[in-house]
Specification:
By secondary structure, the chain is α/β, with parallel strands linked by helices. The chain has 2 domains: about 10-200, NAD(P)-binding Rossmann-like Domain (Rossmann fold, 3-Layer(aba) Sandwich); about 210-330, N-(1-d-carboxylethyl)-l-norvaline Dehydrogenase, domain 2. The chain has 15 helices and 10 strands. It has helices at about 15-30, 55-60, 85-90, 105-110, 135-145, 160, 175-185, 200-220, 225-250, 260-270, 275-285, 290-300, 315-320, 320-325, 325-330; strands at about 10-15, 35-45, 80, 95, 120, 125-130, 135, 150-155, 165-170, 190-195. Strands 3-2-1-4-5-8-9-10 form an 8-stranded mixed beta sheet, sandwiched between helices. A two-stranded antiparallel sheet has the order 6-7.
């Protein structure tokens, strides 16, 4: 029991590498926290593996995701479920961790299917760009499902957290600090330190916009322009992230950019993130292979974070000045 309320039950919507790592963190904590049921349901978009076995069956038998996070045990209390409605039906705490482009469709399937009083948190780094303007993923979830949605962002390369290398994260919330603290308890581990900030837009925009800067960093690497240029791109990128965030939401706080969701996430994504790797390959191929093609080849089913097709000609990517424009030409 927590403050006299019924015990909490968690469902994770998504089972890629970050979804599996999140499930592992949560499952470890639900066994220790008396206010939570042990079992963590993880919704799996069903796939058939080369062996002919279904991915969900493989996860439940081996207690690991052999495709997206091999050799990492998730915890005996993690149950893979390919039925979205069944995975969430008893949960009052929903963790969204799918590619951003699938969120709207998933939420529409869940309308009217959630437990009364459900809360959500988004670990998704991206936004929907609609004709009326950009829409944050947390707002999309709130608007469609009518539930409060926090966000968790940070310098969080999943493969490193999976082997318990130290990392930090930031939870952004609006008004309800008690809910944010409950989420922080659910994720915090000795190797995963979580802080909370009452600035949901700032935290979420940091997690979104750094993906664009990471493309520029990858182009710098692909053109062998060196660490000085890359550092300049990161500095300019951080400044532009701050300016753009405040343009969209004047309430965004300066201090948010110095949390893990801000400068730390920018650094780690520009050094080791998937956007950086694919952008490097794009540049080394002279822009002759599309981001879609490179994504399919290099990421083994994972998706680039954010909308990342750059309309760059071979001449532009060979021009140093073109790199300074990359933030404006990549959406």
């Amino acid at each position: 029991m927590e403050n006299g309320h019924a015990k909490n039950r968690v469902a994770v919507i998504g089972s890629g590498n970050w979804g599996c790592v999140a499930s592992r963190l949560i499952a470890s904590n639900t066994t220790k926290l008396p206010s939570f049921y042990d079992e963590v349901r993880m919704w799996v978009f069903e796939e058939v593996l080369p062996t002919g076995k279904k991915l969900s069956e493989s996860i439940n038998q081996a207690n690991e995701n052999c495709k997206y996070l091999p050799c990492i045990k998730l915890g005996a209390n993690v149950i893979a479920d390919p039925d979205l409605e069944n995975a969430v039906k008893d949960a009052n705490m929903l963790v969204f961790v799918t590619p951003h482009q699938f969120v709207e469709g998933i939420c529409k399937k869940l309308v009217g299917k959630l437990r009364l009083g459900a809360q959500a948190i988004s670990l998704i780094k991206g936004m929907e760009v609609k004709t009326e303007g950009p829409c944050m993923i947390s707002k999309l979830i709130t608007d469609i499902l009518g539930i409060n949605c926090c966000v968790l962002m940070g310098a969080n390369i999943a493969s490193e957290i999976a082997v318990e290398k130290f990392s930090e994260a930031t939870i952004g919330y609006r008004k309800d600090k008690e809910v944010a603290i409950r989420w922080a308890k659910l994720f915090t581990m000795p190797y995963f330190l979580v802080s909370i900030v009452e600035d949901i837009e700032g935290v979420e925009l940091c997690g979104t916009l750094k993906n664009v800067v990471a493309i520029a960093a990858g182009l710098v690497d692909g053109l062998d322009m060196g660490n000085n240029t890359k550092a300049a791109i990161m500095r300019i990128g951080l400044r532009e992230m701050c300016a753009f965030s405040k343009l969209l939401f004047p309430s965004v706080r300066d201090n948010t950019f110095f949390e893990s969701c801000g400068v730390a996430d920018l650094i780690t994504t520009c050094l080791g993130g998937r956007n950086r790797r694919v952008a490097e390959a794009f540049a080394r191929n002279g822009g002759k292979r599309s981001f879609d093609e490179l994504e399919a080849e290099m990421l083994h089913g994972q998706k680039l974070q954010g909308s990342t097709e750059c309309f760059l000609s071979e001449d532009v990517i060979k021009n140093n000045f073109g790199l300074l424009k990359v933030i404006s030409v990549c959406n």
